[in-house]
Amino acid sequence: MSQNQGKFVWYELMTSDIAAAERFYKSVVGWTAKDAGMPDMTYTIFSMGEKMVAGLMTTPEEASGMPPAWIGYIYADDVDATARDVATKGGRVYRQPDDIPGIGRFAVVADPHGAAFCLFNSSGEGQPDGDQMAPGRIGWHELMAGDLDSAWSFYSSLFGWEKDQALDMGEMGIYQLFKIDGQTCGGMMTKPKDMPAPPYWAYYFNVEGIDAAVERVNAGGGKVVMGPMEVPGGAWIINGVDPQGAHFALVAPKR
Protein backbone atom coordinates (compact mmCIF):
# COMPACT_ATOMS: atom_id res chain seq x y z
CA MET A 1 0.00 0.00 0.00
CA SER A 2 1.35 3.44 -0.95
CA GLN A 3 1.54 6.35 1.49
CA ASN A 4 -1.13 8.18 -0.54
CA GLN A 5 -3.79 5.43 -0.53
CA GLY A 6 -7.16 6.91 0.44
CA LYS A 7 -5.96 10.54 0.55
CA PHE A 8 -7.51 13.47 -1.29
CA VAL A 9 -4.74 14.49 -3.68
CA TRP A 10 -6.34 16.88 -6.18
CA TYR A 11 -9.38 19.12 -6.65
CA GLU A 12 -10.95 20.27 -9.88
CA LEU A 13 -13.55 22.80 -10.91
CA MET A 14 -15.57 22.06 -14.04
CA THR A 15 -17.40 25.21 -15.04
CA SER A 16 -19.07 27.16 -17.84
CA ASP A 17 -16.69 30.16 -17.86
CA ILE A 18 -13.09 29.39 -16.97
CA ALA A 19 -11.86 32.98 -17.39
CA ALA A 20 -14.44 34.32 -14.94
CA ALA A 21 -13.85 31.45 -12.51
CA GLU A 22 -10.11 32.09 -12.61
CA ARG A 23 -10.60 35.76 -11.70
CA PHE A 24 -12.99 34.89 -8.87
CA TYR A 25 -10.84 32.29 -7.11
CA LYS A 26 -7.60 34.24 -7.57
CA SER A 27 -9.27 37.11 -5.74
CA VAL A 28 -11.13 35.15 -3.07
CA VAL A 29 -8.55 32.50 -2.14
CA GLY A 30 -5.33 34.16 -3.29
CA TRP A 31 -4.32 31.50 -5.80
CA THR A 32 -2.16 32.13 -8.84
CA ALA A 33 -3.12 30.52 -12.13
CA LYS A 34 -1.32 29.27 -15.22
CA ASP A 35 -2.16 27.18 -18.25
CA ALA A 36 -1.09 23.54 -17.92
CA GLY A 37 0.06 23.38 -21.53
CA MET A 38 -2.07 20.40 -22.51
CA PRO A 39 -2.11 19.97 -26.30
CA ASP A 40 -5.76 19.06 -26.76
CA MET A 41 -7.58 21.12 -24.11
CA THR A 42 -7.40 24.23 -21.95
CA TYR A 43 -6.61 23.29 -18.37
CA THR A 44 -5.63 25.85 -15.74
CA ILE A 45 -3.59 25.06 -12.63
CA PHE A 46 -4.32 26.97 -9.41
CA SER A 47 -1.31 27.25 -7.09
CA MET A 48 -0.40 28.77 -3.75
CA GLY A 49 3.25 29.68 -3.90
CA GLU A 50 5.06 26.66 -5.37
CA LYS A 51 2.30 24.25 -4.33
CA MET A 52 -0.17 23.21 -7.05
CA VAL A 53 -3.58 23.00 -5.40
CA ALA A 54 -6.36 22.52 -7.96
CA GLY A 55 -7.36 22.46 -11.61
CA LEU A 56 -9.88 24.39 -13.68
CA MET A 57 -11.51 23.28 -16.91
CA THR A 58 -14.59 23.79 -19.05
CA THR A 59 -17.28 21.19 -18.38
CA PRO A 60 -16.68 18.47 -21.01
CA GLU A 61 -19.27 17.67 -23.67
CA GLU A 62 -20.00 14.24 -22.20
CA ALA A 63 -21.09 15.99 -18.99
CA SER A 64 -23.16 18.68 -20.73
CA GLY A 65 -26.12 19.67 -18.59
CA MET A 66 -24.16 19.14 -15.37
CA PRO A 67 -24.02 22.37 -13.35
CA PRO A 68 -20.60 23.82 -12.50
CA ALA A 69 -19.09 21.91 -9.58
CA TRP A 70 -15.93 21.09 -7.66
CA ILE A 71 -14.84 17.46 -7.49
CA GLY A 72 -12.13 15.81 -5.41
CA TYR A 73 -9.63 13.13 -6.45
CA ILE A 74 -8.92 10.32 -3.98
CA TYR A 75 -5.75 8.29 -4.45
CA ALA A 76 -6.22 4.59 -5.17
CA ASP A 77 -3.28 2.23 -5.51
CA ASP A 78 -5.30 0.34 -8.15
CA VAL A 79 -7.84 2.57 -9.91
CA ASP A 80 -9.37 -0.28 -11.93
CA ALA A 81 -9.90 -2.57 -8.93
CA THR A 82 -11.24 0.29 -6.78
CA ALA A 83 -13.70 1.31 -9.51
CA ARG A 84 -14.99 -2.26 -9.57
CA ASP A 85 -15.30 -2.15 -5.77
CA VAL A 86 -17.30 1.09 -6.03
CA ALA A 87 -19.82 -0.64 -8.27
CA THR A 88 -19.90 -3.78 -6.11
CA LYS A 89 -20.61 -1.70 -3.01
CA GLY A 90 -23.59 0.03 -4.64
CA GLY A 91 -21.89 3.08 -6.13
CA ARG A 92 -21.74 4.15 -9.74
CA VAL A 93 -18.91 4.46 -12.26
CA TYR A 94 -19.59 7.50 -14.46
CA ARG A 95 -16.35 7.22 -16.42
CA GLN A 96 -14.43 4.00 -16.64
CA PRO A 97 -10.73 4.06 -15.71
CA ASP A 98 -8.62 5.85 -18.30
CA ASP A 99 -5.11 7.19 -18.65
CA ILE A 100 -4.02 10.83 -18.59
CA PRO A 101 -0.80 10.61 -20.63
CA GLY A 102 2.22 11.44 -18.51
CA ILE A 103 0.07 12.15 -15.43
CA GLY A 104 -1.69 9.02 -14.20
CA ARG A 105 -4.91 7.02 -14.33
CA PHE A 106 -8.34 8.12 -13.16
CA ALA A 107 -12.03 7.25 -13.01
CA VAL A 108 -15.14 9.28 -12.17
CA VAL A 109 -17.42 7.58 -9.67
CA ALA A 110 -20.12 8.23 -7.08
CA ASP A 111 -21.09 6.70 -3.75
CA PRO A 112 -24.41 4.81 -3.37
CA HIS A 113 -26.29 8.07 -2.68
CA GLY A 114 -24.84 9.95 -5.65
CA ALA A 115 -22.02 12.06 -4.17
CA ALA A 116 -19.40 12.20 -6.92
CA PHE A 117 -15.62 11.95 -6.63
CA CYS A 118 -12.68 10.76 -8.73
CA LEU A 119 -10.21 7.97 -8.25
CA PHE A 120 -6.62 8.73 -9.19
CA ASN A 121 -3.25 7.06 -9.37
CA SER A 122 -0.15 9.01 -10.33
CA SER A 123 2.49 7.84 -12.78
CA GLY A 124 5.05 9.87 -10.79
CA GLU A 125 5.87 10.52 -7.15
CA GLY A 126 3.46 13.46 -6.81
CA GLN A 127 3.80 16.42 -4.48
CA PRO A 128 4.60 16.22 -0.76
CA ASP A 129 1.59 16.65 1.52
CA GLY A 130 2.68 19.91 3.17
CA ASP A 131 0.58 21.76 5.75
CA GLN A 132 -3.13 21.02 5.36
CA MET A 133 -4.06 24.27 7.13
CA ALA A 134 -1.74 26.61 5.19
CA PRO A 135 -3.46 29.50 3.34
CA GLY A 136 -4.75 28.45 -0.04
CA ARG A 137 -4.76 24.73 0.77
CA ILE A 138 -7.85 22.58 1.30
CA GLY A 139 -8.29 22.41 5.06
CA TRP A 140 -11.42 20.29 5.34
CA HIS A 141 -13.43 17.72 3.36
CA GLU A 142 -17.12 17.42 4.17
CA LEU A 143 -19.67 14.92 2.94
CA MET A 144 -23.36 15.78 3.09
CA ALA A 145 -24.35 12.13 2.87
CA GLY A 146 -27.55 10.48 1.84
CA ASP A 147 -27.21 8.39 5.01
CA LEU A 148 -24.31 8.66 7.44
CA ASP A 149 -24.10 5.02 8.50
CA SER A 150 -24.14 3.50 5.02
CA ALA A 151 -21.86 6.25 3.65
CA TRP A 152 -19.33 5.59 6.40
CA SER A 153 -19.41 1.87 5.66
CA PHE A 154 -18.81 2.57 1.96
CA TYR A 155 -15.85 4.93 2.31
CA SER A 156 -14.15 3.20 5.22
CA SER A 157 -14.24 -0.18 3.49
CA LEU A 158 -13.09 1.34 0.19
CA PHE A 159 -10.21 3.46 1.49
CA GLY A 160 -9.48 2.38 5.05
CA TRP A 161 -10.57 5.66 6.63
CA GLU A 162 -10.85 5.69 10.42
CA LYS A 163 -13.39 7.33 12.71
CA ASP A 164 -12.40 10.24 14.93
CA GLN A 165 -14.81 12.18 17.18
CA ALA A 166 -18.56 11.95 16.64
CA LEU A 167 -20.11 15.36 17.34
CA ASP A 168 -23.75 15.50 18.42
CA MET A 169 -25.39 18.30 16.40
CA GLY A 170 -28.77 18.00 18.13
CA GLU A 171 -31.68 17.86 15.68
CA MET A 172 -29.22 17.77 12.77
CA GLY A 173 -27.82 14.45 13.96
CA ILE A 174 -24.25 13.17 14.27
CA TYR A 175 -21.29 14.80 12.54
CA GLN A 176 -18.66 12.09 12.20
CA LEU A 177 -15.06 13.24 11.91
CA PHE A 178 -12.72 10.93 10.01
CA LYS A 179 -8.98 10.38 9.74
CA ILE A 180 -6.91 9.48 6.71
CA ASP A 181 -3.49 8.01 7.51
CA GLY A 182 -3.92 9.16 11.10
CA GLN A 183 -4.75 12.80 10.29
CA THR A 184 -8.19 14.26 10.90
CA CYS A 185 -9.14 15.95 7.65
CA GLY A 186 -12.91 15.87 7.28
CA GLY A 187 -16.37 15.05 8.51
CA MET A 188 -19.64 13.63 7.27
CA MET A 189 -23.27 13.70 8.30
CA THR A 190 -26.67 12.79 6.93
CA LYS A 191 -27.77 15.66 4.71
CA PRO A 192 -30.54 17.74 6.34
CA LYS A 193 -33.94 16.94 4.82
CA ASP A 194 -34.61 20.59 4.00
CA MET A 195 -31.37 20.95 2.00
CA PRO A 196 -32.37 21.07 -1.68
CA ALA A 197 -29.06 19.78 -3.07
CA PRO A 198 -28.43 16.05 -3.56
CA PRO A 199 -25.65 14.41 -1.48
CA TYR A 200 -22.29 16.02 -2.24
CA TRP A 201 -18.70 16.57 -1.14
CA ALA A 202 -17.69 20.10 -0.08
CA TYR A 203 -14.11 21.34 0.04
CA TYR A 204 -13.05 24.14 2.40
CA PHE A 205 -10.33 26.45 1.08
CA ASN A 206 -8.14 28.07 3.74
CA VAL A 207 -8.11 31.88 3.95
CA GLU A 208 -6.58 34.13 6.60
CA GLY A 209 -9.72 35.98 7.74
CA ILE A 210 -13.34 35.11 6.99
CA ASP A 211 -14.83 38.62 7.00
CA ALA A 212 -12.35 39.94 4.45
CA ALA A 213 -12.95 36.84 2.34
CA VAL A 214 -16.72 37.45 2.42
CA GLU A 215 -16.11 40.95 1.06
CA ARG A 216 -14.08 39.46 -1.79
CA VAL A 217 -16.80 36.89 -2.52
CA ASN A 218 -19.44 39.62 -2.76
CA ALA A 219 -17.23 41.93 -4.81
CA GLY A 220 -16.51 39.11 -7.25
CA GLY A 221 -20.15 38.29 -7.91
CA GLY A 222 -20.40 35.25 -5.66
CA LYS A 223 -22.95 34.68 -2.92
CA VAL A 224 -22.60 33.54 0.69
CA VAL A 225 -25.40 31.07 1.47
CA MET A 226 -24.36 30.08 5.00
CA GLY A 227 -22.25 31.84 7.63
CA PRO A 228 -19.99 33.22 8.81
CA MET A 229 -20.27 30.57 11.51
CA GLU A 230 -17.84 29.54 14.24
CA VAL A 231 -17.16 25.80 14.42
CA PRO A 232 -15.67 23.61 17.16
CA GLY A 233 -12.01 24.47 17.58
CA GLY A 234 -12.57 28.19 16.99
CA ALA A 235 -12.34 28.37 13.20
CA TRP A 236 -14.83 30.34 11.08
CA ILE A 237 -16.49 29.05 7.93
CA ILE A 238 -18.79 30.09 5.13
CA ASN A 239 -20.52 28.17 2.35
CA GLY A 240 -21.15 29.95 -0.92
CA VAL A 241 -21.71 29.73 -4.65
CA ASP A 242 -19.41 31.28 -7.22
CA PRO A 243 -20.68 33.45 -10.11
CA GLN A 244 -21.22 30.37 -12.30
CA GLY A 245 -23.14 28.52 -9.58
CA ALA A 246 -20.51 26.11 -8.23
CA HIS A 247 -20.68 25.45 -4.49
CA PHE A 248 -17.51 26.22 -2.51
CA ALA A 249 -16.57 26.73 1.14
CA LEU A 250 -13.97 28.74 3.04
CA VAL A 251 -12.40 28.26 6.46
CA ALA A 252 -10.29 30.73 8.43
CA PRO A 253 -8.72 30.82 11.90
CA LYS A 254 -10.32 34.21 12.65
CA ARG A 255 -13.14 36.57 11.68
UniProtKB/TrEMBL annotation:
<protein>
    <recommendedName>
        <fullName>VOC domain-containing protein</fullName>
    </recommendedName>
</protein>
<dbReference type="InterPro" id="IPR004360">
    <property type="entry name" value="Glyas_Fos-R_dOase_dom"/>
</dbReference>
<feature type="domain" description="VOC">
    <location>
        <begin position="7"/>
        <end position="122"/>
    </location>
</feature>
<dbReference type="InterPro" id="IPR052164">
    <property type="entry name" value="Anthracycline_SecMetBiosynth"/>
</dbReference>
<feature type="domain" description="VOC">
    <location>
        <begin position="137"/>
        <end position="253"/>
    </location>
</feature>
<dbReference type="Pfam" id="PF00903">
    <property type="entry name" value="Glyoxalase"/>
</dbReference>
<dbReference type="InterPro" id="IPR037523">
    <property type="entry name" value="VOC_core"/>
</dbReference>
<dbReference type="InterPro" id="IPR029068">
    <property type="entry name" value="Glyas_Bleomycin-R_OHBP_Dase"/>
</dbReference>
